[in-house]
Design brief:
Blueprint (H helix, E strand, L loop, with lengths): L5 E6 L3 H14 L4 E4 L10 E6 L3 H10 L6 E6 L1
Length: 78
């Protein structure tokens, strides 16, 4: 069985927001990817952006700098 890791999730109210955030992450070169929402997380669009937990502060700063809105953040083991 694979070892589970701690991730930082960002949820969005729309798919458009989620896809825009994914594009921003690629543009900035910061690791992360869109995933289907885990069953333990509820959000509007059914997608979440997942990144290693160690990058949580980096992502929070990026959202603030770009005035990017999101629904909620979670720390979760996947």
């Amino acid at each position: 069985m694979a070892e589970r890791e701690l991730y930082f999730l960002i949820t969005f109210s729309s798919t458009t927001q989620a896809m825009a955030f994914d594009a921003l992450s690629r543009q900035e070169g910061i690791p992360g990817r869109l995933i289907p929402l885990p069953g333990t997380v509820a959000a509007g669009c059914g997608l979440a952006f997942a990144a290693p937990h160690t990058l949580q502060q980096q992502w929070s700063t990026l959202c603030s700098l770009h005035h990017f809105s999101y629904e909620k953040t979670y720390t979760i083991t996947l």
